[in-house]
Amino acid sequence: MEKARAIRNGPDIGELEGHFCFMVAQGALLKNSFEVARSYYRKCIEIPYNGYSCLIGLARIELGRGNNSGVKVHLNSALELTGNSTAGLSDLAEIARKASYKELAISIYKKAARLSGKAYHEKFQLGSLYWDLGNLQAAWSWYEAALSDMPGCPYALYNLVQAGISLQNATLVQKYFEIQKKAAADPSHETLTGKAARFLAAHSFLKGNFGKASEYIEIAVEYLPERADIEKDAEFLKEVRSHGSQDFIPRAWGNAWSLEINKYRIKTCIPLTVVQAAWPRVWKEINKIAEFYGKTPRKLQLKGDIYLFKSENEYKSWCEKKHPKCMWAGGFYSPAKDLIVSYGRPEIAPERLVTVIVHEAAHQIIRRVWKEKLPIWFDEGMAQYFDTRVNVDEHWGYSNERLSNFAILATARHNGNAFSLKQLLWADYDEFYGEGRRERYYAQAWSFLEFMFEAGKLKCNRVQIKDFLRRYDNKYRQQKYLRWEEEWIKWEADRIKALGISATPRKVEKPPEDKKEKDK
Questions:
Q1: Using N-to-C axis directions, what is the helix angle for 228-243 and 190-206, rounded to 10°?
Q2: Torsion angle of alpha carbons 192, 197, 202, 204, nearest 10°?
Q3: Where do the DSSP E strands lie in 160-303?
Q4: Computed from CA positions of residues 24, 29, 35, 39, in that sequence, does the dihedral angle turn out positive or negative?
Q5: What sign does the CA torsion over 183, 185, 191, 194 have?
Q6: C-alpha span between 471 and 488 (Å, rounded)
Q7: What is the Cα–Cα distance from 508 to 27, expressed in whole angstroms?
Q8: Contact assessment for residue 274 and residue 202, using Cβ atoms and an 8 Å cutoff
Q9: What is the pLDDT of residues 444-474, one digit of tens each?
């Protein structure tokens, strides 16, 4: 008792008590005892003792509890006390990143990088953050900056290879891969070199350079001999080289590849390397769609299964047993099962794989944003609005999908079998997806939405679209939209003429007569 009293009355009581409280708080945090940890961190701040570290601890507590707003409050307080400590700033940036405050994390990492002569870690993290945000050019720049601080670093080299593939910079990709092969003399770096080789194999495969793809696969097998998937890829590529553009031997689901990425479980008959190479572009577009609605994939809780077949025959064979109504489609999304299904021939049309997945993911996101049933033309029109912005041709300023839609519209207008606006707005499931009609309905649904957005009839934001859907009923359609038909047709004609698209002569199939108006 006397000893305890002497310590309490001594000159260093504040420091001793503060140190004790801080150690108890740290131990409680490690055990996820958040309430105990919070109590002792606050005692430290009152003493005061080690205030900056206590604020970091409080931020970690809120992060563990999933309270991101609380994380930000403590981060901002800690920033005021950090000063010019590079290590302290990096700690704050890492917490901000984990709490999904990526812009804040970027600003903190940049400050830390400026304060340090060599800041490999901070620059590497900046590259990763920009990659997550879809800004591949900025990611490339920061990875290169990190490499200059730590030449030969396998992680920076690996990410530069990935970014270079997405940016289509073949020369620099090859340069960095050769450097990475040299770095692989260290056994701990072999795995990254093998993975980089897989990405390069997929890139060559998508470009139709099957010989080069085989070479990279052999390098990958050399550095990742235990990976059975690579042996499957090597076998598949030999098959491609042997058969050229012929149909491949059907592969049963039992021999398919599986992976989980961004909370999507993917089952694919298309080589895993191809899917992995295409996914960064898919994920970038998914983030854009979510942002359009003022959301993020995390807030929308995007997840589910994706099935990818490598031929139309395989796709139809599976659909015949599981989803017979979808056999005609190039892919579909099942809201009940959170399932996206499609097929692709990446050796012939590599961009189609990305476009179709983005289209079906757009349907998934729309249903996450609005729970109620949507008009069919709006649902399909919005999905096309996003997928037609994926592969934009530099010369035309349009994607092939948009040009194809304009060609369908030109032919329909020329043949006199385009649907009226009233027919489009009132079309039910059987009418919209009926054989011989769906191609025109898809194109006209896309066209009408493009017209409304471009002409300012409907603004491209979630609030305006929500208001539009709330007031969308028979009376509203009749009084407001139908009077836009003439303007819409002129808008279509002007763009078709500007693009120099002519109608493709086809057998004229007149659209069905307007159905009687009825409340739905």
A1: 20
A2: 150
A3: 257-261, 264-268
A4: positive
A5: positive
A6: 21
A7: 78
A8: yes
A9: 999 998 998 888 877 766 677 777 776 666 5
E strand or H helix at 129, and its extent? helix 120-132
Provide the phi-psi class of 301: left if phi over 0, else alpha when psi is between -120 and 50, else beta: left
Q: What are phi and psi of 342, to 5 degrees?
A: -160, 180
**CATH code for residues 1-116:** 1.25.40.10
Rg of the Cα trace of the chain? 29
The CB density around residue 380, as the number of other CB atoms within 10 Å, is 22
Mean pLDDT of the chain: 76
CATH-assigned architecture of domain 248-369: 3-Layer(aba) Sandwich (3.40)
Determine the Cα–Cα distance for residues 192 and 249; give it in Å rounded to an integer.
Answer: 31
pLDDT in tens, 391-426: 655 444 456 677 788 888 989 988 889 999 888 888
H or E element: which one contains 236? helix 228-243
Measured distance between the N- and C-terminal CA atoms of the chain, rounded to whole angstroms: 83
Spatial contact of 101 and 72, defined as CB atoms under 8 Å apart: yes
Q: What is the largest CA-CA distance in the chain?
A: 105
Asked if residues 365 and 379 have their Cβ atoms less than 8 Å apart, the reply is no
Cα dihedral 510, 384, 375, 440, rounded to 10, equals 0
d(CA 356, CA 353): 6
pLDDT, tens digit, 9 for 90 and up, residues 126-179: 888 887 777 777 887 888 888 777 777 777 777 777 677 666 667 777 777 777
β-pair partners for 333: 340
Does the pTM surpass 0.90? The reply is no
Dihedral through CA 95, CA 96, CA 98, CA 101, nearest 10? 170
Residue the block writes with tokens 């659209």: 511
Q: Which residues, at least 6 apart from 23, have a Cβ–Cβ distance to it below 8 Å?
A: none
Q: Where are the domains of the chain?
A: 1-116, 248-369, 370-520
Helices within 350-461 (DSSP H only): 350-369, 376-387, 400-415, 421-426, 429-432, 438-454
State yes or no: cis peptide before 48, omega within 30 of 0. Answer: yes
- Residue 216: partners with Cβ closer than 8 Å, 6 or more residues away: 197, 198, 200, 201, 204
C-beta separation of 503 from 413 below 8 A: yes
Cα 127 from chain centroid (whole Å): 17
The pairing of strands 339-343 and 304-309 is parallel
The two structure tokens encoding residue 138:
């900025």
**Which of 457, 451, 430 has its CA nearest to residue 512?**
430
Q: Residue 80, Cβ neighbours under 10 Å: how many?
A: 10
